[in-house]
Structure formats: structure tokens, C-alpha cells
Fold this sequence. Notes:
By secondary structure, this protein is of the alpha+beta class. The protein is about 30% helix and about 25% strand.
Amino acid sequence: MTESDNQHKDIIVIGAGIIGTSVATMLSKVSPNWNIDMYERLDEAGIESSNEKNNAGTGHAALCELNYTVEQKDGSIDASKAEVINEQFELSKQFWGSLVKNGDLTNPEEFIQPLPHISFVMGPTNVEFLRKRYEKLKTIPMFDNIEYTEDIETMREWMPLMMRNRKPGQIMAASKIDEGTDVNYGALTRKLAAYLEKQSNVSLKYNHEVIDLTQREDGKWEVLVRNRATKEKFVKVADKVFIGAGGYSIPLLQKSGITQRKNVGGFPITGQFLACKNKDIIKQHHAKVYSKEPLGKPPMTVPHLDTRYIDGESTLLFGPYANIDPKFLKYGSFFDLFGSVKPYNITTLLSSAAKNIPLIKYSIDQMVMTKKGYMNYLRTF
């Protein structure tokens, strides 16, 4: 960083989710003389998609997610994406570790817990894929502690709940890495927000919504903010603006007027999970188990049974089951999607829809599925 980079700057961060609080924390560390104003439209940090009840907590370390290792036409396995993702997650853990070491975050066990990550597949084609994936990952240092088995008794040790009533002779396989984690992003977000609230160069305001932003000729930004409690509006000027507003980033980018907004669009598809709170069942499963997506379905449909730590207690989540919702935020408006359709992005949206017809069809099928259907899918897994 040059001397000019470290001169005083005014920064605005929109959104107090895991992304917004992480960026603001990094900036407060790297450039303590920068002034950081944060605005969150709700009355707490991490209520939207960062909340622990709205995400799977995996951290996506590429230890068990099979769609990060792609089988090529010649049968070989390309693990380059898995390497990049794993390295990124390891850097995140180093960042959190440094904050804990410095005393900025306390009680790390409240947001991160060790947990094995397992990949489980059924059928000869999927077993062959998993075997080749194991052989490839075993040669890469960051994955060289991976284990592999096609033995049902070993799988009973790894996943006793999932192996109940399965008979020997069924074609299935599993791989396991013990160094995985479960991350409570809601708890982590709240801890980061609490840290930021103590910093003299950071102002974190809740119930404040950014409703417009315009770049001036001198390159600075005028940001229009509304206090949702008093309805008062005011303008803040910043050198840089970071938008970490989840799905609502799309309309904010459109209001910014930047050239790149013309190719941005989104169609909200959410994931829903079945939650188990029966302690007798929960204690029979201690892992995150990911499988392959159903034949002909998009990668986001990968079924997984996750041990989660929420509010200090262990639970189980299974899913995802897709759902279509026109709201860009959990606490958003049903007009979000329609308001984001502009003449300059309609082509992008239509093109995306044409390329994702299987996903749209899958989502509709999921929406009309009954509770019995949900449970049958779980039992099959």
C-alpha cells in the first residue's frame, strides 16, 4: 500500500451481513485512519442470508462438495476449482484466527466447530466418479488426508444414521476428510459487528436504508440514506462505496449508474431445509454429508445432511428444497424482481432463463411437493 492509499478516506459499506462486516473489519485493520460508515436496513446484524438459520454453514471448503471436482470428457478429474475454493476458505480461517488472537473476537467455539466432511454416492457411475476424485485429491497436499471406502461397515462407522437398514451388496461409496468445520455465519457476523461498534473510525447504524447513490464528476459518491424509524433522509459523501446488500445489491447497482449494471440481473431462488430437533436422532449423525445432484438436475440441488451448531446446540438439516420468491431479501418486497427488470437487462434475464430451464422446472416441482414427498426424498438419501 502506498502512502497516498493510506491517506484519509471516507468509506460507506451497505449491509451488515457477513460480507459487509468482513470488509469493514478488514478496512478498519488495514487503514485505521479511514472513516467507515455502515448502514443496515434492519435492526440487527446478520438477519438476512447470513443468519445461521438461512445457510448451511459449510463454508464451502471443497472437502465434500462434488460439483467442485469436474469429470472431463477423457474421464480425468479437474480439481482446480476445488483447490482455489479450499485456499480461499483457509485464508478466511486465518483471518478469523488473527482476530481471535488479537482479542477482537472471543469464544470462537460459538461460531466455528470441527466437523468431518463426507461425500456419499450410490450407483456404479457415481462410485467410479468418487473413486477417481479420491485418487486425484490424494495427490494434492491440501486434500492428502482424504479417506475412501466402499465397505458398508466402514460407512456405518462414519454415518450410522444413514447406513441403518442398508443391506450389504448395495453399490455405494464414501470419502471423508476429518478436518472440516461447521461455521455459524450468523454468530460470526454478530461478533464482527460488535467489534466494529467499538472502533472509533467506524459508525454502524441500524434501521438505515440506502435508497440511492450517484457518482459525482470528481469521482466521489453521494449516497442518499433514509432512517426507517424517523423517515428522515440525508446525504453522505464517500470516496468509495461497498455494496454488501445481498440480493438487494442488484437494484442498488442499477441506481449507481455504473456501466456494468446493464448486464446484471437476478431471479430469486431460495433453498429450504428440513430441520430435526430430536436429540436421539441428532446424536447418531456427526458430519456434513454431501452427495451428487439427481440425474439431469442443476448442481444447486445437491442433497446434503448437515450437523449444525445453532445457539449452542446441535441439530440436523437436510435439503435443499428449492423455492421461487420474487423478493430479493427475506424481509424484502414482492415487487423486487419486477422492479429490477430494465430495458438494458431484459436480454440477460431471458438468456439466463433459457439456459436454466431445468432449474426452473425443478424449482416448480419442489414448490408443489407435499410434506410426504419431502420425507420420501430424505429417506431415500
